[in-house]
Write a structure and sequence with these properties.
Blueprint: H1 2-45, E1 49-53, E2 59-62, H2 66-70, H3 74-77, H4 91-101, E3 106-114, E4 120-130, E5 133-140, H5 142-192, H6 199-226, E6 235-238, H7 239-254, E7 258-263, E8 270-273, H8 275-292, E9 297-309, E10 318-329, H9 336-339, H10 359-369, E11 373-379, E12 383-391, E13 416-420, H11 424-436, E14 440-444, H12 447-456, E15 463-467, H13 475-485, E16 491-495, H14 499-504, E17 510-513, H15 518-536
Parallel strand pairs: 7-9, 13-14, 13-15, 15-16, 16-17
Antiparallel strand pairs: 1-2, 1-5, 3-4, 4-5, 6-8, 9-10, 10-12, 11-12
Helix pairs in contact: 5-6, 6-10, 7-8, 8-10
GO molecular function, one term: ATP binding
InterPro entries: CheY-like_superfamily, HATPase_C_sf, HATPase_dom, His_kinase_dom, HisK_dim/P_dom, HisK_dim/P_sf, PAS, PAS-like_dom_sf
EC number: 2.7.13.3
Length: about 550
């Protein structure tokens, strides 16, 4: 009975195991069928292009959506390679991508695929290798690409429109200011023509013309400084001393109700920049501070050093050795919406007739052209701090004060001057003015004519006074040629603006800025004659 029972139990267990195995097989087959149907549904219904390619790029399997995206049926693509459909400009990059995906998964990659109608679609691919095959998934991103390009085009058109608006504001502001200046000059000239004019009135009108031309010259200087096209005259100077020197003038400009304080280190801080433009920048900032305080408050000018410029206006920090000049006021502050625009030309928050909007343009133009930066911190109702970061330099080895001696008009005593000027009116004025002062002058209309005069009579002239901007050979090239041929003949240059000077400096030549006065011209020639006499004197 026990044997029968054991055999019966074993038979039952075997039958149960067979049933479980059969059920497991059936469930497995069901799962495989379900997974296959799911895969087939994804393959058939996916809006992304699914492909299987070999290592050469040949299509082995293509999902049906190829017909919708590319116009090709899957059967038409089988046996062809990806290179049969890729845009010619994308062939090389596609080849590199295929080489990469043979060893590792490929992140998102863009190229263009040719449709059956000859047009191209932008495809974004993700691919991965498996069992010597490559499985890739491509999405049509043509619409997104076109939208992005349209957005970029719209942004570029907006930037161009903003540039044109800025140009309009610039020209409109320049025209307004210069028309005001020309009105004063024209009215003064008309009044000077009146008969029986008293000497007092004649001098008054002449003084008005002189003052107005000086203001016009400063206006053009501000424009050039804003555009960073000014021919600066850099020299090494001590910022601490300059701030101390200009303090009294700033106090006069701001008035007695503004308390001006300075905070400077005991040791000198040297920079290599244009000292006159530096002074002008401080004056512009001081005047703005006075107006922001409505003529009453405290202005602090502090000089420090720094090893970097902090991040500002979407720019990262800048490492270096800097001298920092900070001007802080207790005025009304600047609204956050205006902070991004304060350096624009002719942008001003002052009332009509109270400011040109060029002061801060001059400041940032001078500092940028000197290799530095400007930062601004402001809080409405509490005040503003402008900080000028100028590259620090070492103390000059020979601290000799440079400058042109001032004084009255100098008698030329027959000094022979070759004037080179392509503008007939300016050239005639310069030669006649010099002749009035007793100089012996000759006018050359261009550099070639000047070199001809020097070649025929090399000992005739004591100094050459040349414009920079001329057709053909410019004044700098003329000066360099004269240096080569006549090394002891001094050359002085003059210019209102020159991109060569703005980019490369004066090449060692003395420069007289236009518009210049007869006094300025006289002092320049006196300096030139003194230099020539020193070089020709016996040792």
């Amino acid at each position: 009975m026990r044997n029968v029972a054991d055999r019966t139990r074993a038979a039952i267990e075997r039958r149960l195991a067979e049933d479980r195995l059969r059920d497991l097989n059936a469930d497995l087959e069901h799962r495989v069928e379900e997974r296959t149907r799911e895969r087939d549904r994804v393959w058939r219904n996916s809006q992304d292009l699914l492909v299987v390619i070999d290592r050469r790029g040949m299509f082995l399997s293509v999902s049906p959506v190829a017909k919708k995206i590319l116009g090709w049926s899957p059967d038409e693509m089988l046996g062809l390679t990806v290179f049969d459909f890729v845009h010619p400009d994308d062939l090389r990059s596609t080849g590199r991508a295929l080489d990469k995906v043979k060893g590792d998964a490929l992140p998102t990659y863009l190229n263009r695929y040719r449709r059956k109608d000859g047009t191209y679609r932008w495809m974004s691919w993700v691919a991965a290798p498996e069992d010597e095959l490559i499985y890739a998934y491509g999405r049509d991103v043509t619409a997104e690409k076109e939208n992005t390009e349209a957005l970029h085009l719209a942004e570029e058109q907006l930037r161009q429109a903003q540039k044109m608006e800025a140009v309009g504001q610039l020209t409109g502001g320049v025209a307004h200011d210069f028309n005001n200046l020309l009105t004063v000059i024209r009215s003064s000239v008309d009044l000077l023509k009146r008969p029986n004019l008293t000497e007092e009135r004649r001098l008054r009108y002449i003084e008005a013309i002189s003052d107005t031309t000086t203001r016009a010259s400063k206006l053009t200087g501000q424009l050039l400084a804003f555009a960073r096209r000014q021919a600066l005259k850099p020299e090494v100077f001590d910022v601490v001393r300059s701030v101390g020197t200009i303090r009294d003038m700033v106090g006069t400009l701001t008035g007695s109700r503004v308390r001006v304080e300075t905070s400077v280190p005991d040791q000198p801080c040297y920079v290599d920049a244009d000292p006159s433009q530096f002074d002008t920048a401080l004056v512009n900032l001081s005047v703005n501070a006075r107006d922001a305080m409505d003529g009453e408050g405290q202005l602090t000018i502090a000089v420090t050093t720094a090893t970097s410029v902090p991040a500002m206006r979407s720019q990262p920090p800048i490492d270096g050795d800097f001298v920092v000049v900070a001007l802080s006021d207790t005025g009304s502050g600047i609204a956050a919406a205006d902070l991004e625009r304060i350096f624009e030309p002719f942008f001003t928050t002052k009332g009509v007739g109270q400011g040109t909007g060029l002061g801060l343009s001059q400041v940032i133009g001078f500092v940028k052209q000197s290799g530095g930066e400007v930062t601004v911190e402001s809080e409405v109702g509490r005040g503003t701090t402008f900080s000028l970061y100028l590259p620090r330099t070492s103390e000059p080895s020979d601290a000799v004060a440079h400058g042109t001696a001032s004084g009255a008009l100098v008698d030329g005593h027959g000094v022979r001057v070759l004037v080179v000027e392509d503008n007939e009116d300016v050239g005639s004025f310069a030669t006649l003015s010099l002749q009035e002062l007793g100089y012996d002058t000759l006018l050359a209309a261009n550099a070639e004519e000047a070199l001809g005069f020097l070649a025929s009579e090399p000992d005739r002239f004591d100094v050459v006074f040349s414009d920079v901007v001329m057709p053909g050979m410019n004044g700098i090239e003329l000066g360099q040629e004269i240096r080569r041929r006549h090394p002891r003949l001094p050359v002085f240059l003059t210019s209102g603006y020159s991109h060569v000077l703005a980019q490369n400096g004066t090449f060692g030549f003395e420069l007289l800025q236009k518009p210049y006065s007869v006094e300025d011209l006289s002092r320049v020639l006196r300096k030139a004659v003194g230099w020539r006499q020193a070089t020709l004197a016996p040792a």
